Amino acid sequence: MKLFLIGSGLVTVFLLASRHPYVQDLLGNRSAEANYQEFCSSCHGADLRSFVEGDWLYGKSYNDVFKAIKLGYDDDGMPAYDTTFTDQEIGALTSYILTTIEDVTADDLDKNASYDDIVETDEMQVRLETVVDGLGIPWGLAFLPNGDMIINEREGKISRYSSADGLQEISGGPEVKAAGQGGLLDVEIHPDFSDNQWIYFSFSKAKGGDGTTAIMRARLEGNHLVDQEEIFEALPYVSTKRHYGSRMEFDRDGYLFLSVGDRGRRDDHPQFLNNFPGKIHRIHDDGSIPEDNPFVDQVDAVKSIWSWGHRNPQGLVIHPETGRMWANEHGPRGGDEVNEIVKGENYGWPVISYGINYSGTKFTDLTHNEGMQQPKHYWVPAIGVCGMAFVTGDRYPAWKGDILNGSLAFDYIHRLKMDESEVVSEEKLFKNVGRLRDIKMGNDGYIYFTVEGPGRVIRIVPI
Ligand code: HEC
Fold first, then answer.
1. Measured distance CA(56)–CA(183) in Å, rounded
2. Pocket test for ligand 1, best of 43, 53, 242 (most atoms within 8 A of CB)
3. What's the pTM?
4. In whole angstroms, what is the distance from residue 43 CA to residue 308 CA?
5. Is 113-462 the same fold as 2-105?
6. CA 129 to chain centre
7. Four-residue CA torsion sign, 256, 392, 170, 175
8. Which of 74, 109, 279, 406 has the smallest set of CB atoms within 10 Å of its CB?
9. CATH superfamily to which 113-462 belongs
């Protein structure tokens, strides 16, 4: 018994001593609440929403929660904190979570969400209008030429919305692997939809216990999808359930660009051209490979690759003036980025980054490297960028040409004020509006965005 005590004492001393100095600095003597906000809130919500709403996958007892924090669930994307915190600190975090969520319901949290309000912004007064509600996690939003919305919910449901007919379900969508960050993801309308009725869906596809990012296109007939074709499948399939990427955007010449995240395998994928994850791809509308893609002549390279060295791009949009693609992507704890996407270029993940590991340790000292692109903008700490739009048209003169980025982690829209292609300043819009998923310019010239918790489509109306 004595020996055991001495033994565990040594272990504690060792753990403290082996902490990365950066973590030591960061932790000091802080409360469990402060640790939660610093290390956990970006994924689980500043209001602990994911614990309030979630079905607990691994049990809700003190021991279950303690174990989850200490050892993590790597395939799901839950980091291990055994080298970050002492057992005492993990215990304090466990108690903090379990006591804070006691007797709290999702409805209680929703009461804090602010919408249908008049909002003063730096240069404009606007009103937020909820256009559609009662949704789950509205991951993707697109507009048909007649103004109807197509809404993807992550669980797999596809809907069409018009003010005349309300919300109607669309049948014939892809079979999705709805687990972790996966499910039914983005939706994109073919530029010649009026002639060919093609709609594109990105989704997580299962094979055995593994999954990947895939794209299906199908023609819309009434509220049914027909002529389904799978035109893209990212290889390899892996067991992780995170970083699917999967935003899609047609450029002006009719090429389809799409993002695939690193699938949680940062050392295997983004810096190697012989696999699909951690890349932005460019294909023809039927999935075939354009002859002038940058790596078509390189032996062993995946021919659809347009740019590489990406982590998890969750926004992909065409610049209204230059016609070039821009993307935003999630960093780890810090290092979310906005990039102008240039043919053949390497964006550096994970060799260069402004971020650090979730555990607080560093994985690279480099923020710059030869042959690797610098972001146009980056966020430290990370905001969980999700959804992206350039403001176009005449309804928002003060915002024209600016980029709106959703913050999944902190429930607001981050506006980058632009001068041509350079960021000149920033503004946080609509604090507490909900977890942002997608942002789009509607055909009517209004900005629409989707949030979850509760799932809604909201329109920004200038006053
Ligand atoms: C990078 C995102 C991320 C961060 C950061 C993170 N988690 Fe998690 N966590 C997850 C994911 C993903 C899961 C898997 C279950 C799920 O999807 O809800 C999870 C699961 C858990 C579970 C088990 C829940 C269950 O369903 O049984 C607990 C408890 C937990 N996390 C606590 C924490 C705490 C405490 C921190 C901070 C010290 C933290 N997490 C940081 C992503 C994260």
1. 19
2. 43
3. 0.87
4. 25
5. no
6. 24
7. positive
8. 74
9. TolB, C-terminal domain (2.120.10.30)
Residues contacting ligand 1 via CB (< 6 Å): 39-40, 42-44, 50, 54, 56-58, 65, 68-69, 73, 76-79, 81, 93, 180, 358
CA of 254 to the centre of ligand 1 (A): 40
Task: Pick the atom of ligand 1 nearest to 51's CA.
Answer: 24
Secondary structure of residue 378 in the 3-state scheme? strand
Amino acid residing at 358: Y
* pLDDT tens digits along 204-242: 999 999 999 999 999 999 999 999 999 999 999 999 999
Q: For residues 307 and 328, give the distance between their C-alpha atoms in angstroms, rounded to a whole number.
A: 13
| 3-class secondary-structure state, position 93 | helix
CA 78 to ligand 1 centroid distance, Å:
5
Among residues 144, 169, 143, 149, which one has the least CA distance to residue 157?
Answer: 169
**Which ligand 1 atom minimizes the distance to the CA of 56?**
26
Domain boundaries, the chain: 2-105, 113-462
User: pLDDT for 123-133, tens place per residue?
Assistant: 999 999 999 99
Greater confidence, 415 or 45? 415
- Is 414 an annotated catalytic residue? no
Q: Whose CA is nearest to atom 3 of ligand 1?
A: 43
Tell me how far apart the alpha carbons of residues 227 and 200 are, in angstroms, rounded to a whole number: 12
Determine the residue type at 74: D
May I ask the CATH architecture of the domain 2-105? Answer: Orthogonal Bundle (1.10)
Between 23 and 76, the more confident residue is 76
